[in-house]
Amino acid sequence: LKGRPPGTPKSDDPNKKKRKRQARERDLCDVKIKITEYFPGARATASDDADGSPAREPSDANNFFAPGQPGSIIQNQQQPRQFPFIAPSDGSVASDGTLRLNQPGCDGNRYYTIQRVNGNGGNGKGDGTAGPHKHTLEESDRIKKNSIHRHLLKVDKEKKKSQKTYHKKASGAALTTVKKHAKEHELKLFGSCFCPFVQRVWISLQFKGIEYQYIEVDPYKKPDYLLAVNPRGLVPCLRHGDWGCYESTVLMEYLEDLNVGSPLLPLDDPKTRAHSRLWADHVNRYIVPAFYHYLQAQDPPKQIEGAQELQNQIGKLLDAAHASGPFFLGPQLSYVDVQFAPWIIRMRRVLSHYRGWPQPEEGSRWATWVDAIEQNEHVKATTSNDDLYLDSYERYAG
C-alpha cells in the first residue's frame, strides 16, 4: 500500500524519496439532512441537536406549531386550524382539511431535530466517514449553487469548443483584398467574410473600381459603430461620409447612382434595366430562400424536394438569360450576375459537400454561367478559401 498507516511518524531520512502531493478537491457539505418530527408528549433535549445547540421549545419562532406560526393550535378547540393541503386517505385529516386532535403533532411538541453532514471524511480520506460541519447551511447552499453553476459553464464551454463556428476573418484572395482596402476612407463597407449579401456589394465595389475601406465586423455582437448605421445590426452596411445605408440590393443601386466606374445596368436601355431588376428580384424572392430551405432540410424527402425547387427556380432564370452568355446579359458581368454570384460560389463549396448538389452538366448553359462566375476576377477577389464556407454553414446543414 502507498503511504504510511495513520499514526506512523514521519521519516527523518533525507535520502528518502518524497512523493509529489496534490491537494484534493474538498466538498465539505456533501450531504446535509435536517429533520424535525413532532409527536404528542415528546420533548427534545440538548443532545438531540447535531450541532450541540440547546433544544428550543415549541414556542420558538422557527417552530411550525408555535403560536403565530402556520401550524399553531388555537386554544379554543372549537376553531381547529385549517391546513393548506389536500387531506390524505388515512383519516389523519378531516374532510374539511383540519388536523384531527389525536394525530401526532397536534400538540406542537418536538420529537427530535438532527443534522448530519458528510463532508470529505473525518479522516480526510473521503471514504464516507462523517466529518465536522465547517460552515453554516446557508454557506453550504451557496457553495453548492456556485459549484453547479461552474459545472454548467464548463459543460457549455466544452460543447462550444466541439462545434465549429463562423469565421471572423477572410482568407485566401479575399484576405488580400481586405488588406488592400484597410486604409481609412470616407466610403466604408461594413461586412462579414462569410456573408453572401456582403459579397454582392463587395463585388460591385471591385467591379466599378471605387475606392473604399473594408471593415470586418461580427454581426452577432453588433458593435456600436454598426448599430449607428443599421439599428438592426445587420451587414452589409455602407457609410459614405456622415451618411449611412444598408440592404445589399439598395446599396448596389446606390453605387450605380454614383455613376463611378463601369455600370452594372445599361445606361441608355431602360427596358434592359427593368428586365435586370425583374430577374434580380427573382433571385432574392425564390432562389435564395430555396437555397437555405434545401441546406437546412434534415429529412431525405425534404432534401429531395428542396433540390428540385432550387433547380426549378434556376431553370426559370436561365430561360430569361442571354442564349449564349456566358453571363446573364451576354459577354459582360452585369447586375443579375452580381446578385446571384455569391450563391453560385456556395453551391459548389457548400451544397455539394453537405447535400450532394450535382456539378453542372458539361457544355450546358448552366455550366457556362457557373464557370464564368467562378473565373471572374472581381468574384475571385472577394472569395475566401473553401474551408471558411464549410465551417460557417455547418450549423445550417445540421
Characterization of the model:
With 398 residues, the protein is of the alpha+beta class. Helices cover 40% and strands 9% of the residues. It is built from eleven helices and six strands. The protein has helices at 137-162, 172-180, 196-208, 224-227, 248-257, 270-296, 300-320, 335-355, 365-375, 377-381, 386-397, and strands at 31-38, 110-118, 187-191, 213-216, 237-240, 243-246. A four-stranded mixed β-sheet has the order 4-3-5-6, with helices on one face. Helix 6 (270-296) packs antiparallel against helix 7 (300-320) and helix 8 (335-355) packs across helix 11.
- Beta percentage is 5-15%
| Structural class computed from helices and strand pairing | alpha+beta
- Give the tally of β-strands: 6
Helical content, roughly? 25-40%
Low-confidence stretches: 42-87, 111-120
What is the global morphology?
A: elongated
Radius of gyration (CA) equals: 38 Å
Strands, helices and their partners?
Elements: E1 31-38, E2 110-118, H1 137-162, H2 172-180, E3 187-191, H3 196-208, E4 213-216, H4 224-227, E5 237-240, E6 243-246, H5 248-257, H6 270-296, H7 300-320, H8 335-355, H9 365-375, H10 377-381, H11 386-397
Parallel strand pairs: 3-4
Antiparallel strand pairs: 1-2, 3-5, 5-6
Helix pairs in contact: 3-5, 3-8, 6-7, 6-8, 8-11
